[in-house]
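User: Show me a protein chain along with its predicted structure.
Assistant: Here is one chain, sequence first, then structure tokens.
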Amino acid sequence: MLHKTWTRFGRVAHTALAPRRMAHAHSGTDSYAYVVVSGQTISGNVQFPIADLNEVLGLAIPQDEIGALAETRANLPTIETYAHEHLVLGTGAADWTLVFTGQRILERKAGSYTILEYHIADRINPVPRTFTIWYDGIIHEKPERHALVIVRTFPGFGALRTVFEERIDYEAGSTYQDVVIPEESVGANLAGAAGSILAEAKDLARRARKRLLR
């Protein structure tokens, strides 16, 4: 399924290493796919706007978190099959085996999301520096929508790491994109560690200012 086409780099953002669920503004209409490369593992999640998912699959998932989670689990085989059909990672030689591991709901006033967590089950050693992400969730049926694929790596040492984030826009007609993961190097890891220390220092300074203003 995967074919090399053209490469387009999104803007790269550096932030302090944070929990997996880093916040991003959700439009309520765009869909999202996260690809997290850490060491020799690849994991992430795919996030579908509930309103569009209902329309595409003929479901009736509500917008509130409790109801949406119950209805997502009730229709999980259908939703997972859909995600399998519309998110593929791999190389020109082979697609990788994507396994779903959990579900959650992101409740938003603009429109809530059903989120499926996944990991790549194949033993990939080493993770290739270039691979392809094919994604057309929702946009295959609703070309007026957009999708965002977010790729994360973590240069640094031990606990001193920085999130290196590439955000790539997908839209109908542009659903294959090659992604280049930065080569591991001492220089990149030093920069990642320095970025983590700097971010922590800024956070400590911000907290100190807040205490002084009380």
